[in-house]
Task: structure prediction
Amino acid sequence: MVETSYQEKMALFRYEVVRPLLNGELTLEDERRTRSEILEKEWSYPDGSKGLVRARTLRQWLAKYRKHGLDGLFYANKKPLMTKGSCLAIPADLLKVAREMREENPRRSVEQILDIMQFGQGLDVSCICPRTLMRYFKSLGLKRGKRVKGKGQHERYEQVATNHLWHGDTAHTFMLDDPNHPGQLKKAKLIVLIDDASRICPHGEFYFDEKLPSVIDCIGKALMKRGKPVRILLDNAKTFRSSKLAVMCAELGVGLNFCRPRRPQGKGKIERFIRTCKESFCVEAQKAANITTLEQLNAAFEGWLERYGNREHDQLNGLTPGERWRQDEFGVDRSLTEIQVLKAMMLRAPRTVHISTALVLLDSREYQVSRDLAGQDVEIRWNPEKIEHLEIWRDGRYLEVALLKGRQPHVEKDWREIVEEAPTANKLESATAYCAALIGDRLSESNVVVGGKSKLLTLEGFIQLLSTRLRREGAFAGEELRLIGQAFKRLAPMERERTEEIVASTIEEKDADRHVRYYLERLEPRAFRR
Result:
């Protein structure tokens, strides 16, 4: 449902590069220093390689984001032209040697392998791009061995102001009645966020799952309640690592960071908050007779959060989380509107519109798209809480809304048949010459020529016929000539004698001084009754 594309990875990588320069409060000197740090830093690209970002590239990415937002960084990337196990940019003999060296010692870096090939074996490796070789190794699954990490040291930290950093995590709690399966139980799972400086909870809610739609829903509600944070810190769960969540944060200008693997000490505040929730709230809610549904549980939890925000916190020097929050409330960024948040919360996925039915599928549900988009590749965007319709996008541009379609007892005639029966607009000279050569002398002269003249009218003959009958001294031109050409394409092939009779009878009914459109409109229904 939430496929990850290469464009998304590259767009998010570019956003991380330019994000330090998006702060509007930077002075000219600070901006120059930040640019230098970005240009001197060695970046890890989405394909696994490492390298620097050039100054010209940085300027282009920054300009695209400021002009088009995240969509400006989405469609500028070209995927590397490489298939698994092959690489056309590197000679096969050098590729074989490099592969053998990586297999001998997986911990060898690309630079080390090239150095050994050049100085150890005397090979010319000037034609090998390290990044290309890195992608080749990755396509074969020849990754470097994991580095051994020490235990290290840890120090307590705290942000200087509210909304500089939010911590987020999930927790499994107790069982509730499953609304979809009466008589069965299902575990309630808590998704919660906490502000680092004030310990206030921007939002927390219980769900029956901890999948991506639930996580995005919780973060979206927190943004609308408490404004925009500078960063959000999460652990390395698969749901949090989703590119869809990264796209949402990038669109809103919120930084997304992750703790080091197997280092829970970095998110101690949220872990302690969850422990407090389990020890003081969940224990009571599990034994309460009046809490049997998820709605009741969330209503009670909302009341508990209000009491928690008004209770003294031992790490805030005698202040409550609410009082600490109000100290910096004037500096909180509340520039996000509800529409911006709802737009960023929408999930994305590529789809191909069905060529026959003009439908797109999402979780076995069918949505009707305009027939003009049949057979085309599009991007669908949808809100997990509002699955009645999808937004259809292509190349970063909004096209339309596709509504959920139900099965009907009666289906109209296939619309594609009408399109296929329409005449070809443009006649090709090459096709005409080819078909004439195929026909040759196979048709009988009695069916084609009578008295030295063809029985069928050409376009020139049809124009000459109308000019003679309507007593036009000059030739048709402009709009009249265009109308005659369109009528001829609809009516062809036209028999000469029958057409002359129809035109003559049409003129006799009125006169020959009317606009040519008048005669063409009366000629068409009579010509089709043959």
